[in-house]
Specification:
The chain has helices at 2-38, 43-76, 80-84, 90-121, 137-163, 169-191, 200-212, 225-230, 236-262. Helix 1 runs antiparallel to helix 2. The protein is an all-alpha fold. The protein is 76% helix and 0% strand. The chain is built from nine helices and no strands.
Length: 267
């Protein structure tokens, strides 16, 4: 399994992803710097918020790209046949691809997180903010939450690749899944807020979201940016349950993907 993970890592690196990551890191730095300069009151907070949103969006697309690159193209080019000719089960092969994508995503989070932290560390501020940002352990927890969020999205894309015969279907549906899962908790909170009862949005959307919360993970629980933006106390229990939710959902998706992949016929 280690050799398959290593080959997947090398394939991801050779796909010019590092070059893209460096270019994206430069763009994130520039956008965060612009956001800080357009903010009249708390430039560092605005820069960090915009930068984290950019990291979540960009790495979501990178996660889908890496899954397509490491698994989808193996199936499309029929190079998977040579791998399966060796005494390696399909489940081990699929798990090795997922762990390779997880390692690549960890590298992406590290590169973009360090780039954003660097620009915030040298950001010229002419006055002291009433709520300074925190770039220590709180920032590391925020980046960990982003990585767990990306793992769930990558696991979903891997499941789609294991059963799809259309190359770009995992990319398209993966984007919709990420959008729905990340907005699920926020939408429910808005519709259940006082004053929202009886509105058209609550009448039509609330029944749908009540069903969706049993099928989709609430990835908004992994968005821990407030810890770094405002220096809030760390709610360890809530963070632990959110991480357990993400890992459990990843395990479920990988189990479904393995079950389907073992029964798929390649011609």
């Amino acid at each position: 399994m280690w050799q398959l993970m290593r080959s997947g890592w090398i394939s991801g690196i050779r796909s010019h992803s590092i070059r893209w990551l460096l270019m994206i890191a430069t763009a994130v730095i520039f956008i965060a710097w612009l956001a800080a300069n357009f903010s009249a009151r708390q430039p560092a907070t605005v820069a960090l918020d915009v930068g984290l949103s950019g990291i979540r969006l960009v790495l979501m697309l990178m996660a889908l790209f890496w899954v397509q690159e490491l698994l989808g193209k193996d199936i499309e080019r029929k190079s998977l046949y040579f791998v399966l000719a060796y005494p390696v089960s399909r489940g081990v092969y699929l798990a090795s691809r997922f762990f390779a994508v997880a390692a690549l995503l960890a590298l992406g989070v590290l590169v973009l997180g360090l780039a954003l932290g660097a620009v915030l560390g040298v950001l010229p501020v002419s006055y002291s903010q009433p709520t300074p940002i925190h770039l220590g352990g709180a920032y590391a927890l925020v980046l960990l939450g982003i990585w767990l969020d990306l793992l769930v999205i990558a696991a979903f894309a891997l499941l789609l690749c294991s059963l799809s015969t259309t190359p770009f279907l995992p990319l398209i549906l993966g984007c919709f899944f990420a959008l729905a899962a990340r907005s699920l908790g926020v939408s429910l909170q808005y519709l259940l807020a006082p004053g929202a009862e009886g509105t058209a949005e609550a009448t039509y959307l609330l029944p749908v979201l009540n069903v969706a919360q049993w099928l989709l993970p609430d990835l908004s629980r992994l968005d821990w940016r407030d810890l770094s933006l405002y220096g809030l106390p760390v709610p360890w229990a809530a963070l632990g349950w959110a991480a357990l939710m993400a890992l459990g959902y990843c395990g479920l998706l990988l189990a479904l993907a393995t079950w389907k992949f073992k029964r798929r016929e390649f011609i």
